[in-house]
Design a protein that fits this description.
single chain, Phosphorylase Kinase, domain 1, five-stranded antiparallel beta sheet, alpha+beta
Length: 432
């Protein structure tokens, strides 16, 4: 979805688009073996064994989620149906590593199949998210929240409505809790190091007056409790007939990030990891390897030599992180990645997300295009237009890992759609 307004800026040059013979998008044989073992028929047998240990007989299973870190680990989840009158659906997680289980897998049960040792667990007992089980069960959850004064009156589990907003196995989860007669809360389950990063950054941004969620509690099992933000997520407003927010407001928000963030540890921008994500996509769709190599080469050639940057940045700035009300920005989410960087990378992240919105009809496509192009016009005055497009393409390649990871319907077509958008951004930069 590349509409007008994304043409090359002045002075654009076109690096060679020749795909390397053994390019960065090529996956290893071991990665391919891991994927075959954990997504093939043998994995279903392993899922049945995991359930059997817990006294359940499996009636069927389907692949639910695939999270691949090439050279390091492959984590999958299966939705498995148990048999009998009391049958239910369980979420079974499996992690395999090239060298076998590590200390990170200490909280899982180890199974061996075909010479491969695999760490397994049953949701919500995620080995890296110890608090997840407590916050997703109404009894323990109401006790946890009542002790912090967040459940007015009688701490009755029936007063809680719990909904899992997102779950990335072994990485993070976000849970919404609505309290009858009380507040709406969000609880984030993370690892200990990530939780510490999140808390410190929320505190920095709150002191600077940024509209971030208010911290209501932090637990020993790595749960962060926050209040709900006002307004509505920008992501839910994309198809409105009138653009929801001016580009100037976006730039002003980022300019308001406090300088204190620039002293924090640096994390690589999404675009700087284009080679890594291209490798993941090529592992999913080997037929796209040549195209990925060409795109990565163009991005790397066009962004080579750029200074790492020392501006305070959000690190993952897109429409899902922004809350709006009457054209004003009233909330900012997911500040875990805040730190030093380049303003162009924050802006490129938003451009990439708006360039890869999927499953739209023609009217929706046109409306998102108007919004995106209006923002790009403003962003081009703030940062180098060529860098904006090339870095947005790098972000788009990272987003192309999503359809397969979430096992979406027609994930192959959805992945190619995102790659088309990335390629369009590179063309718009004059680099392919």
């Amino acid at each position: 979805m590349i509409l007008g307004g994304l043409g090359p800026g002045p002075g654009a040059s076109a690096p060679s688009a020749r795909a390397p013979r053994d390019g960065p998008a090529r996956s290893s044989r071991e990665d391919a073996r891991l994927a075959a073992e954990l997504t093939g028929p043998g994995a279903v047998e392993l899922v049945a064994a995991v359930l059997a240990v817990r006294g359940h007989e499996m009636a069927g299973a389907r692949l639910d989620h695939v999270d691949h870190e090439p050279g390091r680990a492959l984590t999958v989840t299966y939705q498995a149906r148990t048999s009998g009158a009391a049958g239910r659906t369980e979420l079974v997680g499996l992690t395999a590593r090239p060298g076998g289980p590590t200390e990170e897998d200490a909280g899982a049960q180890i199974f061996e199949r075909g010479g491969r040792r695999v760490a397994a667990w049953l949701y919500p007992d995620d080995p890296d998210l110890p608090g997840l089980a407590r916050i997703t069960r109404t009894g323990p959850a109401v006790g946890l929240l009542a002790r912090r004064g967040l459940v007015p009156g009688e701490p009755d589990p029936a007063r809680l409505t719990i909904r899992v907003v997102s779950y990335r196995p072994r990485r993070r989860a976000v849970v919404r809790v609505d309290v009858l007669g009380g507040p709406s809360l969000y609880v984030k389950a993370q690892g200990s190091e990530q939780l510490a990063r999140t808390v410190s950054r929320l505190e920095i941004l709150a002191r600077a007056g940024l509209p971030v969620p208010r911290i209501l509690g932090v637990t020993a099992d790595h749960l962060l409790i926050t209040g709900a933000l006002p307004g509505r997520p920008m992501a839910g407003l994309l198809f409105e007939s009138v653009p929801q927010v001016a580009g100037e407001r976006m730039v002003e928000l980022l300019d308001a990030l406090p300088g204190e963030l620039a002293a924090l540890p640096r994390r690589a921008a999404w675009a700087d990891a284009a080679i890594h994500y291209a490798g993941i996509v090529a592992n999913q769709l080997p037929g796209e390897g040549n195209r990925l190599d060409a795109m990565v080469e163009a991005i790397c050639a066009g962004t080579a030599g750029a200074a790492p940057g020392s501006e305070p940045t959000h690190g993952d700035f897109h429409e899902g992180q922004i809350h709006l009300a009457d054209g004003r920005i009233v909330g900012l989410l997911d500040v875990d990645a805040c730190g030093p960087g380049r303003r162009v990378d924050d802006l490129a992240c938003l451009v990439a997300h708006l360039s890869t919105v999927q499953r739209m009809d023609p009217v929706q496509t046109a409306r998102v295009g108007v919004l995106r192009n209006g923002l790009v016009e403003v962003f081009d005055r703030r940062v180098d237009p060529v860098q904006l497009r090339l870095r947005a393409a790098g972000v788009a390649i990272s987003l192309a890992t999503g359809p397969y990871r979430g096992q979406e319907v027609d994930w192959q077509g959805q992945t190619r759609y995102i790659l088309d958008a990335a390629q369009g951004l590179i063309h718009a930069a004059g680099a392919l």
